[in-house]
Amino acid sequence: MPIISVPHVFNEDELYVDLRMIFGQSLFLKCEGFNFAGSIKLKAATEMVESAERDGVLTPGSVLVESSSGNLGVALSMLAASKGYRFICVTDSRCNLSTRRLMEALGSQVHIITEPDAVGGFLGARLNYLRALCASDERYVWLNQYSNPSNWKAHYRRTGPAIARQFPNLDVLFIGAGTTGTLMGCARYFREWPRPVRIIAVDSAGSVTFGHPPGRRMIPGLGMNIRPPLLDESFIDDVVHVEEADTVRSCHRLAKSGFLFGGSTGTVVSGAMDWLSSQHDTRALTSVAIAPDLGERYLDTVYQSNWLQDLYGEDVLSPNGLEAGARTG
Ligand SMILES: Cc1ncc(COP(=O)(O)O)c(C=O)c1O
């Protein structure tokens, strides 16, 4: 029976959903949403905050500031509340309302950027705002998840080993790419694992991370408008891009079986199923994918029919469309 006094020490790291019954293809989905921050970003937030404390960068009286599409902001809000820091989250108009209200409920201030930068889009505008904020007051501490090595180290130390403990015979690991912290931490861990593991990055169509042209992206979590500084492609075996309409279909296909996951899980599952269906024989492969969060934060977007139809058309959830959400099965 776990008994805790601070929220960040609890994290369910051993839960997987076997997707064979839903998609007709074996894939074990590692659920990262069962902690008090509700997402995998708890690990990166904890590692970045605690290493800044150890280095003497973060001290009593510091004010944490960070750019986040939502989940890191919630995790930092939780940690800041628990550890007694003020926290300002800089996000943009695509941040879900419920995520913003979660941060505010935890005592954080949320600054919303409404105009994208001409070159760097919303992310560029958020980073410009943060630079100006930090220049204005030396109490501000920007952990900078986009370049902070503690972001990937969190997954090198925790997510990678947790998967290896449960699946010592792992063959393929599918990981969504946002800042690429999860991707790079797991990829570096499995590069040192005695058995070869293929690392497949899953990105949203419209993201420039792997050198593709930029395009509209409305679902937060995966994809970037600038190349992620943490990314080292030499650790990645393959990349799959997923259209947002397929992300949505995949989320709804999971929800029809009672599993309400977040948008990026739909992307990762859709990309993984596409990749697996392109292989000659997957029967002997042990495959795992990472589900970064759960679906409640997406009730006004991915699970809201008006939002879906306005963005992706009337037929996005037609029976044929749902089948296409992940082509296998
Ligand atoms: C829901 C969700 N999925 C995926 C990611 C991507 O994780 P990473 O930044 O480690 O690449 C994030 C990051 O914020 C996220 O919030």
From TrEMBL:
Residues covered by the Tryptophan synthase beta chain-like PALP domain: 23-278
Signal peptide: none
Lineage top rank: taxon: Bacteria
Gene name in the database record: sbnA
Subunit structure: Homodimer.
Organism: Pseudonocardia aurantiaca
Keywords: Pyridoxal phosphate, Transferase
Protein name per the record: 2,3-diaminopropionate biosynthesis protein SbnA
Cofactor entry: pyridoxal 5'-phosphate
InterPro entries recorded: Cys_Synth/Cystath_Beta-Synth, SbnA, TrpB-like_PALP, TrpB-like_PALP_sf
